[in-house]
Specification:
Layout (H helix, E strand, L loop, with lengths): L7 E7 L7 E5 L5 E4 L12 H15 L15 H22 L4 E5 L6 E2 L3
Helix pairs in contact: 1-2
């Protein structure tokens, strides 16, 4: 948890199995900390509308988890998977518009190299 001297300097929207979609970096801390939909309001103000859309986006992939054979998890159809990734990018742009220029926003749908979002 952050103290009064720490500020959110970077937020990343990223998918990871069983984790929240928000990864937060605070000033003076090189580590990103994961936050789910319920926790993010502790450190950032995000509109309920955007939070709901990000929650649905994250659930679309989380709901594909195969508990019996984990490697079979994920959206199989390439077009649907691409749409999911593009939908997440649109959400990252919306997030950037909400948090403003003081906070950097990255989008990394599959946890790979992040894309810096400008809005």
């Amino acid at each position: 948890m952050m103290n009064d001297s720490e500020q959110v300097i970077r937020i990343e929207i990223r998918f990871d199995w069983g984790m929240g979609p928000f990864w937060i970096q605070f000033s003076g801390d090189p580590i990103f900390h994961d936050y789910d939909i319920e926790e993010i309001s502790e450190v950032l103000t995000i509109s309920e509308d955007l939070l709901g859309d990000i929650e649905k986006w994250n659930a679309r992939m989380q709901d594909t988890f195969d508990y019996e054979e984990g490697r079979n998890s994920g959206i199989k159809d390439p077009a649907e998977r691409g749409k999911w990734a593009e939908d997440g990018r649109v959400l990252a742009v919306r997030l950037k518009r909400e948090v403003g220029s003081a906070i950097a926003v990255e989008y990394s749908p599959f946890g790979d190299t992040g894309e810096e979002i400008d809005a």
